[in-house]
Amino acid sequence: MKVSTIGTAVPQVTARSKVLGRAVYAGDMKIAGMLHGKVLRSPYPHARIVSIDVSAALALPGVKAVLTGADAPRAKWGVHHKERRILAEGKVRFAGEEVAAVAAITEEIARDALDLIQVEYEELPAVLTPEEGLDEDAPGVHDGRNNVSHEIKVEHGDVDAAFASADLVHEATYRCHAQYPGYLEPMATVATIDPDGRLQVWTSTQSAFLARARLSMALEIPVSQIRVIQATTGGGFGGKMVEDANNLIAGLLALRTGKPVRVVNNRLEDFLACCSSVPEQVTLKLGMRRDGTIVGKEVRIIAECGAYSGLSAEVMHVSAMRSDNMHRLQNLRSHSTLVYTNNPPHGAFRGFGGAQMQFALNSHIDTMARKLGLDPVDVHKTNAIRAGEVSIHGWKIGSSGLKECLDQCMDAIQWQAKRSAPRAAGTVRRGVGIAAAMHVSGNRTIGNWDGSTVMLKVNEDGRVMIHSAEAEIGQGSNTMLSQIVAHELNIPISHTHVVAPDTDLSPYAIGSLASRVTIAAGNAAILAARAAREKLFALAATTLKTTPDQLEIAEGAIRIREQPEKKATLAQIAALHIWRHDGEGLQVSATWDAKTEMHADVHGNVAPAHSFAAQAVEVEVDTETGRVTVVDSFVSDDCGKALNPLAIHGQTNGASVQAMGWALYEEMQLENGRLMNGNFADYTMPTADAVPMLRSGIVESIDPNGPYGAKGASETAILPGAPAIANAVFDAIGVRITDLPITPEKVLAGLRAKRAAEGDAVHA
Amino acid sequence: MKVSTIGTAVPQVTARSKVLGRAVYAGDMKIAGMLHGKVLRSPYPHARIVSIDVSAALALPGVKAVLTGADAPRAKWGVHHKERRILAEGKVRFAGEEVAAVAAITEEIARDALDLIQVEYEELPAVLTPEEGLDEDAPGVHDGRNNVSHEIKVEHGDVDAAFASADLVHEATYRCHAQYPGYLEPMATVATIDPDGRLQVWTSTQSAFLARARLSMALEIPVSQIRVIQATTGGGFGGKMVEDANNLIAGLLALRTGKPVRVVNNRLEDFLACCSSVPEQVTLKLGMRRDGTIVGKEVRIIAECGAYSGLSAEVMHVSAMRSDNMHRLQNLRSHSTLVYTNNPPHGAFRGFGGAQMQFALNSHIDTMARKLGLDPVDVHKTNAIRAGEVSIHGWKIGSSGLKECLDQCMDAIQWQAKRSAPRAAGTVRRGVGIAAAMHVSGNRTIGNWDGSTVMLKVNEDGRVMIHSAEAEIGQGSNTMLSQIVAHELNIPISHTHVVAPDTDLSPYAIGSLASRVTIAAGNAAILAARAAREKLFALAATTLKTTPDQLEIAEGAIRIREQPEKKATLAQIAALHIWRHDGEGLQVSATWDAKTEMHADVHGNVAPAHSFAAQAVEVEVDTETGRVTVVDSFVSDDCGKALNPLAIHGQTNGASVQAMGWALYEEMQLENGRLMNGNFADYTMPTADAVPMLRSGIVESIDPNGPYGAKGASETAILPGAPAIANAVFDAIGVRITDLPITPEKVLAGLRAKRAAEGDAVHA
């Protein structure tokens, strides 16, 4: 009897503890003697720190430490550039930068102490836009260098000749803005010094091991002197990787006080401290043949990293190159420039740079298809790369369900009918839009390894502990691991338990990023479970006097397939695995590493699989108020194989809501570099009333490299939302919005411009 | 440059955290919302529980649970016999048995609540001595069976013929009493329910995995639903294995309240709840040839387990048989009977039954040697089994340093000079005594496995995490593991870290008992470290373009032995082990299992090695007060190879003090089954003023099965103390004390009896 849940809707194994309020987030933790940390942040986007007087703060009863840059290690931390200190010294480079940290016996006292710290600043001219940053006379955000943080240039084929041969060449510039990750749980850490003097850190993170590496770098202590345990993590969306200072500050305060210290961001602090997504200006030029074939592509990106580059260079890299692999492209030229400003830092965000470029590309294709009298869906299909092909950047496409995704969306939204239906008159117009996207499942460029190790322990009761340091951040990776192990061993999911990542104990893993966990850890889990089964079968074969190939696991027992009454329970065999000559606890470990390549320069097959998605929306545009409402949405995700459709629909729908937020509502409002709306009242994420009944579909393209064919699911689903909405707006009112978010003001301005142009045309 | 510390005096790796007060014992732990548990115990040695009324206790504000036997699982727990419930139901069988448990918000409230529990008992006739227990008409301690808990009969050769051929046959009966383990830290546990509903237990234990198994058995939940983490453990001495109910009660209260619950024994509770050593009456008959050769041995043991047998059957087994293996014995008959009484339970204790028998045997040899005009040391040497021989019970002796131990002791105490010196007249007499003993290093009979698994992780900084579930209980096992791993990898000890046992994460291990950790885990650590080195060398060979056999580890680097400038740091290679094609975190696991045998019936080579020890003491006996003072002591321990002489001297001296306590001072005073001296004021452990300058020596017999030749160290050293003192007392005053402890009353009675006998002789 097979009990597998693979392919069926499985509630998250973490659901019960969360629903019952039992899950322990770092902000829930209380340790005897624990102090509370708070951070003083710069009010200026760019200033010299003339002096800091902490004496009054230190004198406040209950304050145990007040640290400034002078008390922090000399080391600088960062990803692409090591350029940031835990606490600023000498200069601050954005409004919100960490200047001092307090530890006190209560959070209230710590907060009060912040007010008593006297900092004298000398304000410096600030760079507030990338354009300003690129000006030759601009002040330098970082000393001794200009404001270009990173550049990427790519060229393939002959773009000029391609454009010359094209039937239509179109160029436009698109702009998009930063989005705050908006997870429910702000960043939180409890750090303490263990009895042996080692730093022990519980933190909300997407990667315990990367967190440990960064703590080591920033605090200048060996990784072996640090233990990071992932606390229950209430969402990440890219924001809880290695760009925020929350756990560094908690660690520093613990080291300096010798006490447990909890640092929980409030929402404003989290807005200031976390990295929002990278704003980009994309100038896109495509050459197209009459049949929709794209013959040439030219891209210029100006991306803004803010004061510190973090992962922005890698994000821009994705913007610059990933969408190229979606098409059978031959001629390409791109030039991307990442610019420092004195704004809060940007970085990783769900989709990792894909959304920015896909907004431009899908808007552009829609425009050009209309000009050529083509259906943009056909243009996508015409150009779509196929399974078995190698893309312009050397990506080997093992599977693609893009066409099926597009077809699902067209069906669901009634594409043909609604596009061709006559538009009703009146002030409220409807339109439909569609967009397509691709994403990676894994990425070798993280460091020439894209593997994962899963360790299994089969206990004496025949149940299985699963050890992996890939992070459950709400996306369902623990459920995926439990499903796979349960499937391979044919045991109930309830007989598996995934142990939280702990760098002292878990096998090394990169963590939850680049949609890599299902493919990397999923494959490792299959290998580990099969290794465990092999050990169980070898021992059971001796016990049952047969050969391993005659055995099966069913109903809690290992039995001879053809003589099921001949059996031993899993518990018996697991116990016997210990209690015998040359015994040992049944523990196996398996690693799977993608057969991918570090790209040489920018060329190479970096990901073992690629997920595709498409989304169709119908919008209603109120031409009097300019308000855009998404009235219907269908997003289709090619996840290779849906290991857990329930989880995939959930993640896919969540992604599409986040895309709607970015497209229509969410915008971090800066005035002179200062964030004006760092709270959920003023930073308007889409609430239930702004979202239609969410619909989503799954395409199973069965990837040859995926576990049972699965690829990373649903991150791709955030990519097509914004351009689908922009295309639907155009469909509704004929106005092309190239500048996100699509606010009522921009819609009204577009309508006015359109009417003016039409008037001009009439009057011409 | 070799940095090894093997064979040198190494401070304990756990010392710093303990000396600084940073080590976290279970009693130090505070968890938010934690309740405090207290236990109501039976005041009667034997009674029927007529009724329990908990209503008043439950009504006390702050009380969260009051549990009785009716609230506890139906399961019974135990080692040899499953006969004990977590909380008594129906009957109590000893004064101190757990009847009810309270959880309250403070310890004070919990204590107050105990007073409000109304228990009506109907007292039953109690069995208070083994003799009573063996009476045909005795009340049964357990229903449906007589009071014989266990019997062991062994016979080899022809004992009667041997006695007939002997030049001297001597029989005597020896009695010894229970000793309380007297660790500094009473038993303590914090139990909580984790967010997934699993029971999580931090407890002071000698074995996290055996604790988990027992929690599973007693609480009737699968082992996989339980996580046991060993808290810092302040001594065990056999008392923290699987016989006390402390962590069961904490677990039960946590399960029933859903809250964290801490249960810390106070000293009286610990006296009542823990198992003291097994009191035995040993009747020993030896036949000896004129030259001291033992030709026949007959043993009858009546041992008392108290109300529940726990590990007493196994302890009696050791008493019955272990000392036989010390000699080249051929004719042997023994009959041992374990008897239930209504006294508090007895069980495992440092030496595990060896001390009881060695007291009899060494006293007996001393007596017979004197009768034959021999030096008892020569008798020991004449009969001593040699390396390479197989003992009467099938034990294969790989190494023995017994003769060297005896020689060390003789030299140190000036044996020949002092024995032959004329005794000074006066009321204070001096005498010297010596005794010899053997012990096992490991014991397969625990369950047909006597192995250990050690897992190592080499971090990216080239430092090593050591995972083992063998328990550091103060004896130094963590230091031993660190030394071995550091030695094999030629890195500083400070670059190793032993992670505390955690059943979710550590590889399976049996724990710290039977002096098995050095040999089992030590050998596993060697294998694991070599496996790690092999992986490092394989990778470094590629990097350095050489072959692994050309490489060495030195000064933090892997280098070509003959070209030391060609090198890569350990950190570089460890990082490269991850960050490359088919990489993974460097993690290895190795298991070592002893090549021993489960004994068939009672015959078999159960231990991979055997440690020997001898002790010589000089005592002063005040013939007016009867007081015996040890004025000099030298104990010599054959530990195979002294991996850490500092630790061995410490453990050896500790053992000899505990032996002095047992021989002279410590005695649990029962009146009608009730303990009268359950505190350190009335239970007189030897304090500094009662102990001479402790001297100890080491013999390195280099065992073929031991890591670098090492065997279990220093447990043997508790065995010869009591008989050495008894022999010295005889040497001083001619009085043979056969009944421990050697109190002034017994000495004076002995002197009176001796004078009476001498008077009789004169008058005859």
Q: Can you walk through the features of this model?
A:
Two copies of one chain form a homodimer. With 764 residues, the first copy, chain A, is α+β, with helices and mostly antiparallel strands. Chain A folds into three domains: 26-124 and 184-235 and 240-273, Alpha-Beta Complex (Aldehyde Oxidoreductase, domain 3); 346-442 and 605-760, Aldehyde Oxidoreductase, domain 4 (2-Layer Sandwich); 451-592, Aldehyde Oxidoreductase, domain 4 (2-Layer Sandwich), CATH 3.30.365. Helix content of chain A is 29%, strand content 25%. The first copy, chain A, is built from 19 helices and 30 strands. Chain A has a seven-stranded mixed β-sheet with strand order 3-5-1-12-9-10-11, with helices on both faces. Chain A is globular. Chains A and B meet through strand 19, strand 20 and strand 25 of A and strand 20 and strand 25 of B.
Name the descriptors.
homodimer; 764 residues; alpha+beta; Aldehyde Oxidoreductase, domain 3; Aldehyde Oxidoreductase, domain 4; seven-stranded mixed beta sheet; five-stranded mixed beta sheet; 19 helices; 30 strands; globular; CO/xanthine dehydrogenase Mo-binding subunit (chains A, B); AldOxase/xan_DH_MoCoBD2 (chains A, B)
Quick recap:
2 copies of one chain form a homodimer. Chain A has 19 helices and 30 strands.
